[in-house]
Structures are given as C-alpha cells and as structure tokens.
C-alpha cells in the first residue's frame, strides 16, 4: 500500500475571509504544511499583521468577495507575489446575517447573499478559470458552508439559505469541472466558539443552546484542521462534489 501525505509544499493557496477567525487559522495551517498562502480579506491591517506573523510563505491581499473586480485583483496579486498559478482555493469569507427575517431590511438580506453565496461562487470560479487556463492537473477548491444549510435555523434565514446554496453550488461546479483536473468540495461546520459568537454563548439562552447538543459542548477551531488539509492535498485525488459535515454530532 502506498503511503499518503498532507504535505502541501509546492502549492499556492488563496484563502478568503483570512483576517480573523477560521480564515486566519486556515492561513497558519496551510503555510505550516508547506503551501504559499495569499491571505484575502477587507481588513488590510489585520492581514498585514497575520502575514508578518507567518513569514515569507504568506502575503496579504485586500479584497471584497462581493465584488468580482476585487476577486480578480486578489488572484492577480497572489500569483504575482509567488510567481505561480493559485492551485488551491479556500472560499471562507462570510457574514452571519443574523436577525428575524420578518424584520430584516432588504439590504441586509442582499449583503448576506452577496458575500456568502455570490462571493463564494465567484471566488471558486475565478480560481477554476485560472487552473484550467494553466493546465493545473490537481486543483483543489474548498468552500465553507454550515450545518444550518440542512436544519431550520430561526434568526438565520438569509445565512442558512446562503450556506445551502454553497453546498449545492459546490456539487454542481464539481460536476462541471470533473474532467478538468479540479476537485471541489464543501465543509459544513457545526457551531464553533469564536470571537464573533462567544458573547452569545455566555448568555442563558446560549447555554441552553449548547445543552441541546448531544455532547453538550461547542467545537474548537481545530476541529476542521485534518479534513481541510486532506481536501487540499494530493491524498484527496478521488474526492470531489462531497460535503463534509464536521459538527461533533450537533445535528444528531
């Protein structure tokens, strides 16, 4: 039996939503596994700090995924920085779009869909276009969805709809590009404690939310590490169009 490795040496990755939270963790993780990493987000100061922390294997790319021109410029900057085609894409940028849908303004619904769904599709598409043009034989695209894509989520209607769209878009693009050397998969995380939601989970309602989970706990950010590295590596050669639910059993 041949061995396999999650070593990403020689890969050039672009990660959106990389200025904080999971995106920042993904940047550190991929760079630590050998990839050159372009860190994409709107907050230039945070990107610069993270790129400085990671070192020569990282560059900061300011971009807004709701704007296709920004996405194209971001890929251009990444490829100029590393002198190689981006062959690994993590479409992670997103906003929570929280609020009861009956009261949510139209512009907030539109923004949630633009960033979470349109932005993910445009990011994946731009990466795929470049991989196909360069003849990349083993391109990797990972889109970050959510378990709310599969469960009724009061207060997260626009968000959950956007994430359901990400899962289906990933499967459909995987079929379109199946013969073009590109594997595209999605990860649907459960509830993970981050700076954004920590205050909520400290409340009485938030504690009751956690108590409903079978293991009565939130996930740690490290819960996605192994699967993300697998999907970005050569070990995932035969995996495409698949959604990986990583939720510590929260949906059981």
From TrEMBL:
What keywords sit in the KW lines? Oxidoreductase
Output the Gene3D superfamilies linked to this UniProt entry. NAD(P)-binding Rossmann-like Domain
Tell me where on the tree of life, at the top rank, the source sits.
Bacteria
Q: Which residues form a coiled coil?
A: none
InterPro entries (alphabetical)? NAD(P)-bd_dom_sf (IPR036291), SDR_fam (IPR002347)
Query: Which Pfam family is one of those matched by this entry?
Result: adh_short
Family stated for the protein in its record: Belongs to the short-chain dehydrogenases/reductases (SDR) family.
Q: What is this protein called?
A: SDR family NAD(P)-dependent oxidoreductase
Native species? Altererythrobacter litoralis
């Amino acid at each position: 039996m041949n061995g396999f490795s999650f070593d990403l040496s020689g890969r050039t990755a672009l990660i959106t939503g990389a200025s904080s939270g999971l995106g920042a963790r993904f940047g550190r993780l991929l760079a630590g596994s050998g990839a050159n990493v372009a860190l994409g987000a709107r907050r230039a100061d945070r990107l610069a700090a993270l790129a400085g922390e990671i070192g020569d294997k990282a560059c900061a790319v300011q971009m807004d995924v709701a704007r296709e021109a920004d996405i194209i410029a971001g890929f251009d900057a990444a490829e100029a920085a590393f002198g190689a085609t981006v062959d690994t894409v993590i479409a992670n940028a997103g906003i929570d779009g929280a609020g009861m849908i009956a009261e949510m303004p139209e512009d907030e619904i539109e923004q949630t869909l633009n960033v979470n769904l349109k932005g993910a599709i445009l990011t994946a598409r731009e990466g795929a276009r470049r991989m196909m043009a360069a003849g990349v034989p083993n391109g990797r695209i990972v889109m970050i969805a959510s378990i709310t894509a599969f469960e009724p989520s009061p207060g997260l209607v626009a968000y959950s709809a956007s994430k359901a769209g990400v899962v289906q878009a990933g499967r459909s693009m995987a079929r379109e590009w199946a013969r073009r050397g590109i594997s595209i998969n999605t990860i649907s995380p459960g509830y993970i404690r981050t700076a954004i939601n920590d205050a909520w989970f400290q409340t009485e309602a938030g504690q009751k939310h956690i108590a409903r989970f079978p293991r009565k706990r939130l996930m740690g950010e490290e819960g996605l590490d192994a699967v993300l590295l697998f999907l970005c590596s050569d070990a995932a050669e035969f995996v495409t169009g698949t959604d990986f639910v990583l939720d510590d059993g929260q949906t059981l």
